[in-house]
Amino acid sequence: MRFASNGLVGGFCICMAACNSEGAPAAVDEPGPVVQAPPDRQGGPEPTVRVWLEPADLSTDVATTPLTVRVQWPSTPPTLEALENLRAAVSLTDARGQGLPVVTTEARGDLEASNGTAEFQVVPERPLENGWYSMRLDGLTGLYETSPVQRIAGREGSVAARFHVGSAPLIQHVQVCERSAGHWTVLAEFSERVRTGEALAMARLLRPGGPECSLDREVDAMIPPADDDDSLLSLRWGCDDLSVDEVVSVVVPSGIHSLVGTDVLAETLDVSRRAGVNVSDRCTVIRGSGGPLLPTIDAP
Predict the structure, then answer these.
(1) End-to-end alpha-carbon separation of the chain, Å?
(2) 49-165 matches 171-287 in fold
(3) For residue range 149-176, what is the model confidence (pLDDT) as tens digits?
């Protein structure tokens, strides 16, 4: 384990190191470091502190994306001890579950700010080769929260993000939003841009026993399209009267390719609003692919 030098940047700087681990990324056989929520310095109720990992779970083609732990607080900043505990609770493993040595960058933020943020970057000692990896943060307790679009791993208080260096396109997540009364948008988002073509046109949203959902690429103020003439990042359908328990199937056919020609994982995802996480009063996010090549991870 190696540490970057300490210094003072933008209010505070500390070091963060990721812990090596052995075994599959999903294994949580021994208790990890316990990260308590920071106490309220004014003597009132403890605030909620949100932590999340970047890149997000099921991200692909992330060779140039820094591995980052972000911390956000709405009122009382976390203590230096709480941030030090966070640094000790991070691990990075490859697809075989082998722990990888890392160094860290200085954390940047402002401990005195209310409604502030800080971030810690985790840097592998050697460049990551193409393949799947898992970064996880264990031991979160108290009033810490994690991002609703990231998979909770192992046990309560742990979060993990699986990511792929190099192209490996798949459905990262499905978002279901009420666009207007009785009308729902189902958005299947790829983990990287894919080429348009005949195979992509065969993608379907199946709704057994209900009205057909139509492919819908109209401009939507709530979910702006990210498409261009030759590639796209998502497919969007419009559905009427979609109940919270109704299951629809996103069918991804074979023959779809990323911008560099990598095959998109062909699969059928059965999703429902009930199975997702509400990220607003109108939108639910359901996690995407569970393909066999992904690192194993304990389900919530």
Answers:
(1) 30
(2) yes
(3) 665 555 567 788 889 999 999 999 999 9
